[in-house]
Amino acid sequence: MILKKYLKGLKFVAVFALAALSSYLLLSLLFSKAFAAIAAYSSQFILSLLGVSSSISFAENPHLISPLFDAELVNLCWGLVEMAVVTGLVLASDDRKIFDRAWGALLGIISVLFFNALRIAVTLKLFNPVEPFASAIAHDLLFRISLVLVIVGYYAFWYVFLTAKFMKNKAVV
């Protein structure tokens, strides 16, 4: 019985690692420019709601620009790692229907895009060129907090609430 649980856990980790790595490669190769642009435009929109005027410049990566900052949005900013981790977690949850996992992965990617745009906008709103060290700490802190909250929060929400109907008649051990 105990061995069976360990094997199930090892299977989850193996499927998670394979799915997360595959997602990372697929998303970075096929969608990085599109997701970076989505992050730039949605962050700019949220910044405008916060009263910060900015423009977008596209070079290798998009830049959000204002008189106070020039922020380059790289893969970590728009959430490539979070997307891969959320996708891996959702797809590895083999006690859920494959349809629920596919939709869960897609909704997870959308959630990551939204929350990272919000984090980017708040970070840039807090940016103070007079105190770059404090701004860097705020950026790092918000990044790390959002990294954990978005991944764990989305997965828990998806697992407990979005797929709960499937689990009503099935005991989870």
Structure report:
There is one protein chain. With 173 residues, the protein is mostly helical. The protein has one domain. Helices cover 74% and strands 6% of the residues. It is built from 7 helices and 3 strands. The protein has helices at residues 2-30, 32-49, 75-78, 80-92, 98-126, 132-162, 164-167; strands at 55-58, 62-65, 70-72. It has a 3-stranded antiparallel beta sheet, with helices on one face. Strand 1 and strand 2 form a beta hairpin. The radius of gyration is 19 Å and the shape is elongated. The model has no long low-confidence stretch (mean pLDDT 90).
TL;DR?
By secondary structure, the protein is mainly alpha-helical.
Defining key terms:
173 residues, mainly alpha, 3-stranded antiparallel sheet
Oligomer: single chain
Strand tally is 3
Structural class: mainly alpha
Number of helical runs? 7
Mean pLDDT: 90
Radius of gyration: 19 Å
The largest sheet, given as strand count, sense and whether it forms a barrel, is:
3 strands, antiparallel
**Fraction of residues in β-strands:** 5-15%
**Element string (H = helix, E = strand):** HHEEEHHHHH
In the residues, how many domains can be counted?
Answer: 1
Indicate the overall shape: elongated
Please render the helix and strand layout as text.
Blueprint: H1 2-30, H2 32-49, E1 55-58, E2 62-65, E3 70-72, H3 75-78, H4 80-92, H5 98-126, H6 132-162, H7 164-167
Antiparallel strand pairs: 1-2, 2-3
Helix pairs in contact: 1-4, 2-5, 4-5, 4-6, 5-6
